[in-house]
Amino acid sequence: MAFSMRILLSLTSFLALLSLHLRSVSSASATPSSPITTTDHPLDPLTKDEFTLVRTIVLKKYPTNTGFHYVGLDDPDKATLLKWASSPNKNLVPIPRIAFVIVMVNSQTREIFINLKTQQILSDNVHTGNGFPTLTVDEQSQAISLPLKYGPFIESVKKRGLNLSDVVCSSFTVGWYGETKSSRALRVECFMMGETANIYVRPINGIVIVVDIEKMQIIKYQDRSVETVPRAENTEYRAEHQPPPFGPKLHGVAMMQPEGPGFKIQGHSVSWANWKFHVGYDVRAGVVISLASIYDLDKHKSRRVLYRGYISELFVPYQDPSDEWYYKTFFDAGEFGFGQSMVSLEPDRDCPPNAQFMDAYLHDRQGNPSLLENAFCIFELHGGISWRHTETGIPNQTLREVRSDVSLVVRSVVTVGNYDNVLDWEFKPSGSLKLGIALSGMLEIKAVEIKHKDEIKEEQHGTLVSENSIGVYHDHFYIYHLDLDIDGEENSLVKTDLKSVKVTDGSSKRKSYWIAEAQTLKNESAAKIRLGTSPSELAIVNPNKKTSVGNEVGYRLIPAMPAHPLLTEDDYPQMRGAFTNYNVWVTPYNRSEKWAGGPYVDQSRGDNTLAVWTKEDRNIENKDIVLWHVVGIHHVPAQEDFPIMPLLSTSFELRPTNFFERNAVLKTLSPKVWKWPACPKQN
Ligand SMILES: *[C@@H]1O[C@H](CO)[C@@H](O)[C@H](O)[C@H]1NC(C)=O
Ligand SMILES: *[C@@H]1O[C@H](CO)[C@@H](O)[C@H](O)[C@H]1NC(C)=O
Ligand SMILES: *[C@@H]1O[C@H](CO)[C@@H](O)[C@H](O)[C@H]1NC(C)=O
Ligand SMILES: *[C@@H]1O[C@H](CO)[C@@H](O)[C@H](O)[C@H]1NC(C)=O
Ligand SMILES: [Cu+2]
């Protein structure tokens, strides 16, 4: 939700000039594989050379005052791409390779499409609607350096008896609160480092700094009051800065895969067990999974499941209405860029030793490509059970049949300021897709004069997590864009309500039971669903394909515990984040409807969101449809979240439901168990 010191990261990226695109780091010596210089799949992210090409073409037309806010692949037309994907001779289906670029030229936002093969600008239009593009890393680092050179701020620091060289600042988006005129601005807040690296728990409260980022000047400065900066003691999280003792002691494990990994990565295409899919990424979305299909052993063919899936937005509204906090209602994907905020993964920590890593090319404000090493990892996850049974009902026999499970995980971490989002796509041989979200990092802390709960006299909008430190209440609402294509594009949403039936005529000894009533939802308004209000199941089905016993083939959504927004619908942040009003939405596929909070989210006014598009109430029956799923977490901070939060996890599942004729892993045998050869016990 905040930006600070990301400049260090891009610098490191630049220094890593020679990097292998794909690396195995299970041992210290990397297994080299050739770096990707050309694309072999039309969905491959822009290459380093393509970023450079885009930059050259744009700067030729707009040589001065040009900032690159988004450069990415304009995803190919779906019909053409599907034709390409199913064609045995891919060369016969040419797919144009087009870059979509959002630049700001002299404070004007321009949308430019460039044909990368012919190197021509296809179109160039000015964006005139509300909202501004995703912030660049560069302008945020400029903004946060301003206070340190600003007289009144230096005074404020002195007045508090603090050392300026320990001050670190961070940038925050300003939101929108009904203003009729908007200009690009950021709030800047500063923190104390000193004896700790944990800056977020040591805010210098009482100061308001607003920066006009077009002029790159402080346009508002207020020093309201002097508040104690929470102490540095006991806030450190780096092991080397902690005093012993350490514990509890955890034991390690040796991993080896004598048969090698079970997956193959070619470029960005992954095949593993019965799954095939493409892993891409985007500056705005982060990891994007496309064209996921699963091999059906009984039907002897690959069957389509997911055309495209990614996190479309993350809305994080804080719940303190005071002058210094009310504006904290962040949209991490649209404002800060989920892909732009991806961070390098640490081998053997973020991912197990059997993981393989992939790098990503992103771009900076000047349009130059920047390399992010180990941007995501792919690994096989062991330890689970696929299915089992112990038969205790057959006299004089014990029968036990167990299959251990292995799944494939694609993991990335998106760090937006204080919070780290660990994002997993888990593929299971049973056909299930499990999408995991886990949060770690730091709480946003409000400094107060309170040292004990007994001193709290008025609402503090959070939990006293340590002396002088309130962890402020907030939500995390993620919305996934899931373009499922179950056995083809034409799909429907089926809602199955579980209903109580009362027995009143004495026909049973029971007084009640329940039945399942399925209904195909016809339009967008019917498909706006708040989960958890009544028992129901939701499935995306292909009404044109049935199993041999006549069920429509489908995939069911097994949601995480549903969370609903608590802000009123007329509140400004809620208008902008109106896609959280329901946990489930279904829209007809429209390639320009990608971002649930709208394409331009910084200071957006909620006039181009999923909630607005669906007012058309379009037909969604037997159509190419997109499932949007909101995963929400209300966060009431606790002391254990301080000074750094242990992973807080949630997940949901897309599970085949009458998709296969029977259990798809009935004949999947457990993997071979390998023993270390004559390995002595070591300590
Ligand atoms: C401020 O910090 C710097 C660098 O850590 C140090 O050299 C200096 O002595 C400090 N000044 C005061 C007044 O504490
Ligand atoms: C089970 O084993 C017991 C003891 O060996 C034997 O008496 C009994 O007849 C067996 N029952 C069956 C159903 O085989
Ligand atoms: C939308 O679909 C629902 C059933 O799914 C139906 O009851 C309703 O009349 C439809 N609305 C319109 C405007 O057709
Ligand atoms: C696709 O979405 C855009 C943006 O919401 C909208 O303007 C356009 O009318 C939509 N097209 C169709 C065919 O619904
Ligand atoms: Cu939180």
From TrEMBL:
Highest taxon of the lineage: Eukaryota
Residue ranges of domain Copper amine oxidase catalytic in the record: 255-665
GO BP: amine metabolic process
Active-site residues per Swiss-Prot or TrEMBL entry: D332, Y419
Keyword Iron (UniProt): no
Matching SUPFAM superfamilies: Amine oxidase catalytic domain (SSF49998), Amine oxidase N-terminal region (SSF54416)
PTM comment, free text: Topaquinone (TPQ) is generated by copper-dependent autoxidation of a specific tyrosyl residue.
Signal peptide extent: 1-27
Subunit structure: Homodimer.
Family: Belongs to the copper/topaquinone oxidase family.
Protein name: Amine oxidase
